[in-house]
Amino acid sequence: MRIVITAPSLDESRNVSGISTVVRQIIEFSPHEFVHFKAGREDGERFGARWAARQATLPFRFYSRLRRVRPDLVHINTALTDRSIWRDMFLAEAAQRARVPIVLAMHGGKYLVEAPDDPKVERAARRLLGRAASVVVLSSTEKASLERRWPGLDIRILPNAVPIRDEPARSVNDTPVVIFFGRLHESKGLNEIVKASAELLNAGYEFRLRCFGDGPEREVFLSRISAVLGDRFEYGGVVGGTDKFKALDSADIFLLPSLYGEGLPMAMLEAMASGCLVVASEMASVAEVIVDGVNGYIIEPGNTAQLIERMKHVLNDKKGWESIRKEAMRTVRDKFSIAEYVDRLDTIYEAAAAKNDK
Question: CA 78 to CA 85: how far, in whole Å?
């Protein structure tokens, strides 16, 4: 089967994107023939006249690509955010005009569990979803949310997955290492990380914070967190491949206090596979993976006081780390393997393609 699949840049050095990570894995592990169509902004790419011009021509370029490639299927990866909804609605309409069935995969977004205030955005989301032969979500929570708002969709659950690695050799660092791995955007709880770090340091807790990633808030965040932690903070830029897993394997605690917009973070699954203790916000699909105090810890989004108390508990309880690490690795191995993911995705592709044959 030949499939056109959308995603931002697949170059890890240019784009910190969970969608890009998912698509790289699909291309690597799936037996189908994929043609990547770039849709989505790179980190550091500025809004302006050139960007607007490219967006205006995107549906026409997409339609031209479909006519040239003649795929059996289009796989559009999107998020329920304002820009993604409008962009991908026009891409879906181009695919429909080219008479190519669409699999629409949802990757978070602030409108995943709450309706937009703007009725135009709500209608655009409805048009986007309605053009898909199948809509793919990451959990039963997301499925229930979409079915409640837009009944009649063919919704399939397919959680993200990661390649299963050999269990890394681990030891607890003398000074615990906390790691943030992801896009440097306010939605990831960067302000909460700064506040919690300052409070923990003032309370006498010893730890180091390592940050990897890029995004629009990079300079502001690096300045603020450096002022708080000094040489206890390290910024490693954008890393991928084996360097990414070396960074995760050498850390103790993975921190992701997101405020909104998460689906099922790839970085969180990779951290669990590496044996990090995850502290993450409870939202969307995260709560279907993390069992608080069993294979990680969850907090309320935006609750900085709770984040601080949870971090104090984790830092005080090194004896309990090993059992949680083991359970985190077991969770990923048993439920989020890439082999099972590819098999289930293939079933979704076949069902979507079959609808077009009727």
Answer: 7
Max Cα-Cα span within the chain: 67
CA distance 319 to 336: 27
Run of H or E including 233: strand 233-235
What are the distances in angstroms from CA 53 to CA 48, 152, 294?
A: 9, 35, 49
Q: Are 310 and 297 in contact (CB under 8 A)?
A: yes
Delineate the domains of the chain, giving CATH numbers in brackets.
2-161+337-357 (3.40.50.2000), 177-335 (3.40.50.2000)
- CA 354/CA 214 separation, integer angstroms: 41
Summarised one tens digit per residue, pLDDT across range 337-351 is 999 999 999 999 999
- 233-252, pLDDT tens digit by residue? 999 998 888 899 899 999 99
Confidence (pTM): 0.89
321 membership: H or E segment, kind and range: helix 321-335
Report the alpha-carbon distance of residue 217 to residue 200 in Å, rounded.
23
Taking the chain, what is the end-to-end CA distance rounded to the nearest angstrom?
A: 17
